[in-house]
Design brief:
Length: 149
Amino acid sequence: MKKFIADGMCGGLARWLRLIGYDTLYFNTSRKIELIRTAEKENRIILTKDKKLVSKHPKFVNYIEGENTFSQFKEVVKKFDLEIKEENLFKICSICNTHLEKIEKEKVKNLVPEYVYNNKENFSICKKCDRIYWEGDHCSYIRKKLKTL
Ligand SMILES: [Zn+2]
């Protein structure tokens, strides 16, 4: 599976790629050398709006045309022929790019709102940023948006 690094103005794009299961780092830094080093070391494609960076390293730096998050996402899905599969959705923390782990319902009792606890059965946790995830309304919104691709 392809891996990415989103740069600067492509933070929203990084979140969408994580939602469909693609390992995507987000670097908002002016030190472009860090980006390049990480991309080389971890075999990642850089997604950026920095044309200078693209012309210096055309092999693995990809220029993003789109001005808004979803059009950028569409562009990357098409260009790199990314797969959108139900079993890959919502497997990576959209905030910090860590693989989510299942967690028993009883363990999240004091960590999620009461109505969520009472109405949902399946929960996962990001062990890095401690965020708890469950299948909520935002998931059906995301699925609907993905169908428009
Ligand atoms: Zn996280």
